[in-house]
Design brief:
Elements: E1 2-7, E2 11-15, E3 27-35, E4 38-46, H1 53-75
Antiparallel strand pairs: 1-2, 2-3, 3-4
Length: 81
């Protein structure tokens, strides 16, 4: 991953430059926003060339990771795979 944008406490963005073929050229971003005393995380992995089985699997895996991250931030315990 190559860092393409970094704003402390607001945003981190990457470009995939080396990975499996389908990931190369995709972008990953984490945008943070304070809302009503809570932190809202908007996550995106975009720039996919096609909707494939890999795309579907990554979508599912990112969802599990985000659920674990939320649990870790709120309770100190995540659910690692």
């Amino acid at each position: 991953m190559k860092v393409t944008d970094l704003v402390p406490n607001k945003r981190a963005a990457w470009e995939c430059i080396d990975s499996i073929e389908e990931w190369i050229g995709t972008s990953v971003s984490f945008d943070l926003e304070e809302r009503n005393g809570n932190t809202l995380l908007r996550f995106t992995q975009g720039g996919w060339r096609a909707v494939t089985d890999t795309f579907a699997g990554c979508n599912y895996d990112w969802a599990l990771f985000m659920k674990s991250l939320k649990s870790y931030c709120e309770t100190g315990t995540g659910q690692p795979s």
